[in-house]
What does this fold into?
Amino acid sequence: MALETWIIYSLAALGLSLTPGPNGLLALTHGALYGVKRTLATILGGSLGFALIIGLSMFGLGAFLVAAPDLIIWLKLAGGLYLIWLGIQVWRAPAMRVGKVQEATSLSPRALFRQGLLAASSNPKGILFFVAFLPQFVVPERSLLVQFVIMALTFVVIEFGYEFMVAFFADRLQPFLAKAGKKFNRFFGSVFIVIGVLLPLR
It folds into this structure.
């Protein structure tokens, strides 16, 4: 990939990362509830999910989904149901306290990783977006595998940095957010549920 093409791709990837989505919202809520260190597991899970989506898009699954609209509908329903379930979990989470959620009620790093992974990979619209987005930067004469590694690594690094900053500031603002008590959990839990309901309808 030429340097000029990579710079343009990186700017486009940055713009995509800055667009509000489930993973950014998840980094925000987990950063406030569990702290930035524990939220690294969530962010790593999301990074792997995005890498998988990019790989699937580049190697043909996106074209298959376009050709199978019924499968897209079922995937949208599955993704929507997962976001609704995630919203319910956030809604039911204990109210924040200074010092974060108590260890007894805190999710394990594996559970946080899994939530990040599923939030990134359960949305078929992400695959369809990358199907339209990535070909603009692919050079057919060059190795598709090498280009995949460059594109996936670039996007994952940018997305990781964005989500880390979101979690970092949520962690620092946690004492302020804790004053809202359960209202914080219920607001962002409701946002997840609304996204989950609207996802299959689009």
